[in-house]
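Lecture notes, unit on protein representations.

Consider one protein chain, 276 amino acids long.
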Amino acid sequence: MRNGFDVLLVEDEPVVREAAARILRPEGLTLDRVEDVDGALARLRRSDYRVVLSDLMLPGFSGFDLLERVTGERPQLPVILITGYATIENALAAFKKGAFDFLPKPFDVAELLGVVRRALRATELCRWNAIPFVSGRTGAAELPGEPYFLGQHAWVTLDGGIATFGLAESWPGLLPGIVSANLPKAGANLTQGLSCAELGTADDSIHRIWAPLSGSVLEANPAVREDPDLLNRAPFTSGWLARVAPSNLEAELDALTRRAGASAYPARNGGEKEKR
């Protein structure tokens, strides 16, 4: 019989391993801890997990190497990368390679709890890279034209040189009620791969949103400021986050991906489409 754990923690620094354990264990979560990629792969062969939480810089192989193996062999298992080397390049590469999310060190307790809870919820709903999820009846198909994506973290549409972006599949329906949305103000300058907004949820978690493009904010969605949970109910339509005048569009599109006609967000409430 295979063992089962909630979280596989891959971290070579004892202090960080213990800190993560102190945060997650009071949640009633079971942890299995290893120090490197070889150890993680060995555990994955004999045990089942709901989430992998891995450092990026590890002895021998890196967290990117582990991410590649997991997404290739167990694509429905969410991988969260954590790192003290939180460069823009690392954040963008993490999402493009299929990470569920990216968390810089030192992480806040509410941030770590938020991203792990969200990933666990995705696993419960068979929502991470699952076939029914990717071929859902609504969602990304609601976006006009051929949208770009920062992994499954954010979507971007372009119209007349203006970029509109919002939350992609690793968010909607996975948050227990969004109670606050700290959105960028008009005139703020965003940098691709850096935090641009922050959500607060009913379970006291905090969730960072990473900017899919650089540029000057033209407006943030006033409807989301007034009703933050709109991001759960209509993330691909009326729940957009912000409109931006891109500053380095041609170069930055290389970090994004396109999905021709792909719908990746299943209908909720028994098939009800998002209300515009």
